[in-house]
Amino acid sequence: MQRRHKEEVRGNETEVEGVHQGDKEMGGMEALGEEEMAFGLIPILFPLSSLGQPPVELIRHREARWLEMTSHWEKAMARRYKKVKVLCRKGIPSSMRARCWPLLCGGQSSMDRNLGKYKELEQSPGDPQWLETIEKDIHRQFPFHEMFLSPEGHGQRGLMQLLKAYTVYRPHEGYCQAQGPVAAVLLMHMPAEQAFWCLVQISERYLPGYYSPEMEAVLLDGEVFVALLRRVCPKAYKHLQKHSVGPLLYVTEWFLCLYSRTLPFPTVLRIWDTFLSEGVKVLFRVGLVLVRLALGSSENLRDCTGVVETLEKLRSIPARLLQEDTFMAEVHNVAVSDRDVERECRTQLAKLRKVRPDFGYHPEQRLPNAKAVFDAQQLEDAQQPRKGRHPAPAFLIPEIVVDPPPPPPKEQRRKKPDTRGKTFHVAQRPMLSLAQEGREGEEPGPAKRNSAPYLETYF
């Protein structure tokens, strides 16, 4: 069996085109070990590694925390997103990824809003042109994973149906070869319907324009990557510029396949945990770390005398440097934020449009992280009720009608008499005030406002 698999690999290497090249037939499994065996990968060609697993108590503790958080997901995303991000950086337990990934990327919400849609797409005949292309690529996706060993197995058949459904769902995009390994990783962790909606979310929310025929988003992000590399690792930047090694020669496969064909599988899963939480900036950070590990020192640059040697150096980073805990610690320490990526996108987009006025990609379509995806879906749900959801019967939620209290009576104000054109006559009858009692010989004073004669005015 080992010999047969070796021959299959040699034969497949001559058939790979586009982003599927050379030894990448094994989906980035140069460092297969015990952890890879736990994920369903069969160690045939490579020695076992001695990478350790976290203690069982720690795994159980993290599982309990994720169970509690996913049980109150809307509350967690609305109020405790920073905590979700921290837990994703520590790594989602393998037993929880099938539950957490669809929640993080919004695939679960999309599936709930489109009940029965995937079955309808799956039963559609599809475009024969895309079906032929997909069928040629199916056997190249993780050939040493137990799900994809047999052409008649549920793994290859499920992957075929999933990719066909996407071409029916988005006929203007069709099928991109790089979607194969992404969909395969999703199928390893969840049923086909969930995997389909996760693929839709990744293609439309996280990486819009990546899998379109023009691939303009990849072209833009390649220029953004070079600009970030110039700031983070100037030595590697100068070397790549000196030998005219463009970013599309190495970044294309990294970004399109989400590193699933480049790095050891446990490290790939940790990258996905963080990518689905924090968005595209994680892809830039991972790429910057890889370039720094390969070309960041003078010793590594001695053997890189041209384009071929430089690309080979980028492909042959020692496996000990790619161990998930050590590698991800370096990734999180890279000083690249969402704001840095957005600012550089605007700068490079302006430069590209000077050369290509018809450049149609708009980076504003891309959402930066899981919180933005969650907020966008909440807004969509508020504006449009979910399909298939019916209002609850009236007897379940009784309506209580309370009559409003009557308005208070208006205050009856005394109407002033109309005195326009009237003549007032004052009675000439002298009256004595209390102070004037006993003063019978004195003349009364003039009438005042509060005096008795004034009050006895008549008309």
Characterize the structure shown.
One of its GO terms (cellular component) is plasma membrane. GO terms for molecular function: GTPase activator activity; small GTPase binding. Keywords: GTPase activation. This protein is mainly α. 53% of the residues lie in helices and 0% in strands. It is built from 23 helices and no strands. The protein has helices at 2-13, 34-38, 56-71, 73-79, 81-90, 97-105, 107-113, 117-123, 128-138, 154-169, 179-187, 192-206, 216-232, 234-242, 251-256, 265-278, 281-295, 298-301, 307-315, 324-332, 338-355, 370-383, 452-455.
Summary?
This protein is mainly alpha-helical and 459 residues long. 53% of the residues lie in helices and 0% in strands. Helix 7 crosses helix 12 and helix 16 (265-278) crosses helix 17 (281-295).
Shape: globular
Helix proportion: 40-55%
How many whole angstroms does the radius of gyration measure?
A: 38 Å
Percent strand equals under 5%
How is the secondary structure organized here?
Blueprint: H1 2-13, H2 34-38, H3 56-71, H4 73-79, H5 81-90, H6 97-105, H7 107-113, H8 117-123, H9 128-138, H10 154-169, H11 179-187, H12 192-206, H13 216-232, H14 234-242, H15 251-256, H16 265-278, H17 281-295, H18 298-301, H19 307-315, H20 324-332, H21 338-355, H22 370-383, H23 452-455
Helix pairs in contact: 4-5, 5-16, 7-12, 8-10, 9-10, 10-11, 10-12, 11-12, 13-14, 13-17, 13-21, 16-17, 16-20, 17-19, 17-20
Which key phrases capture this entry?
single chain; 459 residues; mainly alpha; 53% helix; globular; disordered N terminus
